[in-house]
Amino acid sequence: MEDPELTKLGSSLQVACVQELAKNPIAAIPPRYLRPDQEPTNATSPLSIPVIDLQKLLSTSHHDDDGDLKPELDSLHAACRDWGFFQLMNHGVSESLIDKVKAEVEGFFNLPIEEKRKYWQRPGEMEGFGQAFVVSEEQKLDWGDLFYTTILPKHLRKPHLFPRLPLPLRETLEEYSAALKGLSMNILDLMAEALRMDTGDMKVLFDEGWQKFRMNYYPPYAFIINIGDTLEILSNGMYKSVEHRATVNSDKERISFATFVSPKLDGDLGPAPSLLTNTQAQPKYRRIGVADYFKGYFRRELAGKSYVDVMRILPTLITPKADPA
Length: 325
Known about the structure:
Helix content: 25-40%
Strand content: 5-15%
């Protein structure tokens, strides 16, 4: 069982509530919220995001007689390797439950500001209502609010956050969390098989892992699965972690919610031993305690994929000795 102290992984400075700022007539978004470094690209045509059917994957064998991946599992492998994310259909989580989560999230953001202040981020903590990765008074901010809390394991829940949420939201998140727990383990098992890893390497890190829930508000039914930094490291770089960014709409608000599935905090993170053995590959990333990894991650300003780069093992350059004169 993890020590609750392990969850003290970082902090974020308190900032103003964007939803409240947006209620007042403004001619332009305040300069601190303008992000010229994150201008959206001009896509000339829509991209075809990979679509994975989970029921097809679960109902068929995954290897042919020669040991090669069958098309369904190969499609998952390619999506993780080449894209870093995919759309998941027939995932088994009911539309009615997803609609309940959406309605409760909207209800939470529509609470009076006096109620939301009860869930404000506390000094020295990351969880709560506010923004993430705010480490200085000068840095740029996102034009949006978030609420971030630990769901699993239950003993790591902050007593002033999850247990004090409105009862309908809390009950809905309990049901949603259980559904996502089973779904995430199914997906991780399939990824392990595609990577030719022992499934035990996934289970030892994720079966009793850390599940967080984040809801986002941005002013004016399939799941999207993102490959995160921990899976890039665990797969020794075979699967690619990608950045997720939301573009605000000038006419209407936008709400989203995400569940983060992370390794258990008292585990070790690095390339899976069975993957290195089965592929005879050299490790491309360092091995580090999971809690130490997240402490480093949360204490930095969010800047692209810079932190996963810190984990890379750089090649050693050997300078040939000069011939003796």
